[in-house]
Design brief:
alpha/beta; 5-stranded mixed sheet; globular; 289 residues; D-Maltodextrin-Binding Protein, domain 2; 9 helices; Alpha-Beta Plaits
Length: 289
């Protein structure tokens, strides 16, 4: 039995393959093939653009796939959301679909777009957003290069952004956020009801989550005199309680913790001042809470 999985082609491709590698799966993509090889004989891969993924999962061409929640909503796909994986092209921050206009535009709110033209790739979600707010605007599909559609072809655009830098480079300002989106692992309903496939998908989801969590954390270990133990423990923000082991010298202990990487640089000097020695920081591949 095989699990057919869709790998998003395009902006999410590299980050997805890197995440799978950390989770223990090596995906190899040939330049001229849409069928990547996966070093798991029970899995078959197919490269599909994220915009189309949900439809192919819904109709059973794929058992599961990874795509943005924005495209699941845009397609109105009837699929199972297995898990939310908070990663994007270049980081862990959710991407945003924003309503943007030229810097010189008099438009300052969505109400100002009554009777105006809006260009976007996210047509259905954008239409729904305007309808919910009682604004009647012409929303039409953009075949790429959406940032250059204003002001000649549209009064405003709804565009995807992570940092907003591309919008600023094109002299656009954000009026408001239409929606935020993260990557989701989605499944075909029939496949989800298959016991073998469901177990396979749940195991994969667990490993992908553990790989994501490991990106934010590091391991830290050190030697500490028993007399300094309380001071050291007070400094350490561990996931649970630190692991403490006795050394051959009865006056010394070994302490090991898993902590957020962003706090390490602040606490290592404090640990040293409090009496910790032999401090070692090491990366993690997976963290399963």
């Amino acid at each position: 039995m095989k699990l057919k999985i869709g790998i998003p082609k395009g902006s999410l491709q590299e980050s997805t393959i890197a995440l799978f590698r950390k989770a223990g799966y090596r995906i190899t993509v040939s330049q001229r093939s849409y069928y990547p090889s996966i070093d798991d004989p029970e899995m078959e891969g197919l490269l599909i653009r994220a915009q189309e993924m949900a439809i192919y999962v819904e109709n059973g061409v794929l058992d599961m796939g990874l795509t943005g929640w924005d495209w699941v909503r845009e397609q109105g796909a009837d699929v199972v959301e297995v898990t939310n994986l908070s990663y994007a092209k270049s980081g862990r921050t959710p991407v945003r679909w924003v309503l943007a206009v030229p810097e010189s535009s008099p438009i300052n709110s969505i109400k100002d777009l009554e009777g105006k033209r809006v260009s976007t790739e996210l047509v259905n979600v954008t239409k729904g957003y305007f309808e919910e707010r009682g604004v009647h605007a012409e929303v039409f599909f953009s075949w790429g290069a959406t940032e250059v559609k204003t002001p000649d072809l549209a009064d405003a655009i709804v565009e995807l952004t992570e940092t907003g830098s591309s919008l600023k480079a094109n002299k656009l300002r954000i009026v408001e956020t239409i929606m935020e989106s993260t990557t989701r692992l989605i499944a075909n309903k029939g496949a989800w009801n298959n016991e073998w496939k469901r177990t396979k998908m749940e195991n994969l989801a667990c490993l992908l989550h553990s790989a994501l969590l490991a990106e934010e954390k590091v391991g830290l270990k050190m030697n500490v005199k028993k007399s300094n133990l309380e001071n050291i423990i007070a400094i350490l923000p561990a996931m649970h309680t630190p692991t403490i082991a006795h050394l051959t010298d009865p006056d010394w202990l070994d302490i090991e913790v898993i902590i957020d990487e962003k706090v390490v640089r602040d606490i290592i000097p404090c640990l040293k001042k409090a009496g910790a020695t032999g401090i070692v920081e090491y990366p993690l591949s997976k963290v399963i809470p």
